[in-house]
Amino acid sequence: MARHNRTGKEGEELAAAWLAANGYTLLHRNWRHGNWEVDVIAHKGKRLHIVEVKTRRGENFGYPEENMDNKKMQSLINAAEEYMEQDDRWQQLQFDILSINISPHKTDYFLIEDVYL
Questions:
Q1: How far apart, in whole angstroms, are the C-alpha atoms of residue 113 and residue 96?
Q2: Residue 107 domain-assigned (yes or no)
Q3: How many domains does the chain have?
Q4: Collapsed DSSP state (helix, strand, coil) of residue 16
Q5: Could you tell me if residue 28 is inside a domain?
Q6: Phi/psi at 106 (nearest 5 deg)?
Q7: Contacts of the segment 79-82: beta carbons below 8 A, 24+ positions apart
Q8: pTM, whole model, 2 decimals?
Q9: CA–CA distances in Å: residue 40 to residues 18, 19, 30, 103
Q10: Is residue 69 within 8 Å of 24, Cβ to Cβ?
């Protein structure tokens, strides 16, 4: 597995643990429908959260969240619409980015809530 794939996988593991520790209930990880994928689908209270996880090792290439673009956002919107069609109990929806920066001495988490590009 390529290093960037290992970093992404590690980031998704860290994200799941961080979200659970911060009061989110995880419903799905790597949920797919057709070509669309959502890293984490979770809820907190009555709100459904579609979470895109962005992970980097160090800041040499910018912050993880800088890798989010309109195409990815549209893909998340499409996936969320399909998910909500399959599970219609959710009335409130929110898109979030969980940015994770892994360095040798610490891991930083930055949750950007209610994102629209």
A1: 5
A2: no
A3: 1
A4: helix
A5: yes
A6: -160, 165
A7: 79/31, 79/33, 79/36, 79/37, 79/38, 79/50, 80/38, 80/48, 80/50, 82/33, 82/34, 82/36
A8: 0.91
A9: 12, 9, 6, 23
A10: no
Is position 110 within any domain? no
Instruction: List Cβ neighbours of 31 (8 Å cut-off, separation of 6 or more).
Output: 37, 38, 41, 79, 83
State both tokens at 40.
């984490």
**Residue 98 falls inside a structural domain:** no
**For residue 1, is pLDDT > 70?**
no
Q: Return the CATH number at 46.
A: 3.40.1350.10
Contact between residue 10 and residue 53 where contact means Cβ atoms under 8 Å apart:
no
**Tens-digit pLDDT profile for residues 16-53:** 999 999 999 999 999 999 999 999 999 999 999 999 99
* Secondary structure (DSSP) of 58-92: SSTT--GGGG--HHHHHHHHHHHHHHHHH-TT--E
Domain that residue 33 falls in: 3-61+70-92
**Pair of tokens at residue 81:** 């619409």
pLDDT at 63 > cutoff 90: no
